[in-house]
Design goal:
The protein has helices spanning 11-16, 18-30, 33-36, 39-46, 83-101, 105-116, 119-124, 126-136, 143-169, 186-202, 206-224, 239-249, 251-254, 261-268, and strands spanning 49-53, 62-68, 75-82. It is mainly α. It has one domain (1-270). It has a 3-stranded mixed β-sheet. Helix 5 crosses helix 9 (143-169), helix 5 (83-101) packs across helix 11 (206-224) and helix 11 (206-224) packs antiparallel against helix 12 (239-249).
Length: 270
């Protein structure tokens, strides 16, 4: 298995790919069979405004729901991604790919701990952190692993977007954008998770989608413990509960995967 000899990842090139990945994920999710088959879901999805905030470099989050226009007091379906969450997910795709390949849960957990200890560096230069992880954890540099990590990142973004689309299609109000109606609460988060699982299953994402969904949530759980600006955790159900529910939703495909629930428990239980 070849090991890292020279840097592979370039932060500038990584960030240039963000908009393309987001566009592909948005097209996939909002045009998914699950959404398009239900007029009540398709209507807000078709009018959804998409925003990418590249100025909040220290915020790791995505938002979805009904945004209130302060002038007209009308609600607009909106999904917003920050640059921070894109950087975080791109790096998270490395540990998720190691877990997906099976057989090295210990390494995957050490990678996630390393990642959570270098949050500021990831937000400043994700490529440098990825190169350091490739070298420190002796990750393979063959085409299969590098392609898997790219696909894992794309799927993680798709999972987050599917969850936020759930808030939009289920008519939840955007956090911090007006108190009524339907302010985001724990039940909203659970229903958005269920919605996202249905979207991913309708797209046939299989075990890759399940592992990506579980791993992106596990990675955000680690960073939320370290950063005060990870918004919304007080209104969210317990992350372990959410991860278990997602894994269970994909039970039919996960039984053929190398990733077992016991592996996930080792990752999320510190």
């Amino acid at each position: 298995m070849p090991c890292l000899v020279e840097p592979i990842y370039d932060s500038e090139a990584i960030e240039k790919s963000f908009m393309r990945v987001l566009y592909d994920a948005r097209t996939l999710v909002l045009g998914s069979p699950y959404i398009m088959a239900n007029p009540a879901h398709a209507a807000p999805a078709s009018h959804c405004q998409f925003e990418y905030d590249d100025e909040k470099t220290d915020v790791i989050n995505a938002y979805g729901g009904l945004r209130v226009d302060e002038k007209t007091h009308k609600y607009y379906p909106t999904i917003r991604f920050t640059r921070g969450i894109m950087c975080w997910l791109r790096v998270s795709a490395l540990f998720a790919s190691v877990l997906f390949m099976g057989g090295n849960t210990g390494k995957a957990k050490k990678m996630l701990r390393f990642q959570s200890a270098h949050v500021d560096s990831i937000l400043n230069s994700p490529g440098d952190v990825m190169n350091e992880m490739m070298a420190q954890f002796n990750l393979p540099t063959d085409g299969y692993f590098l392609d898997l990590s790219r696909r894992m990142f794309q799927m993680m973004v798709t999972c987050v977007l599917a969850h936020e689309a759930g808030h939009v299609c289920l008519w939840h109000s955007l956090r911090g954008q007006g108190a009524d109606p339907g302010a985001t609460n724990r039940n909203d988060e659970r229903s958005a998770d269920i919605f996202a699982c249905s979207v991913l299953q309708s797209l046939g994402t299989g075990a890759l989608g399940a592992v990506a969904f579980v791993c992106q949530m596990a990675s955000l759980m680690f960073t939320s413990k370290k950063r005060e600006n990870y918004d919304g955790m007080d209104s969210h159900p317990g992350t372990v509960e959410r991860i278990r529910n997602i894994y269970t939703s994909f039970a039919n495909v996960m039984k053929y995967s190398k990733v077992k629930w016991s592996d996930i428990e080792k990752i999320i239980c510190r």
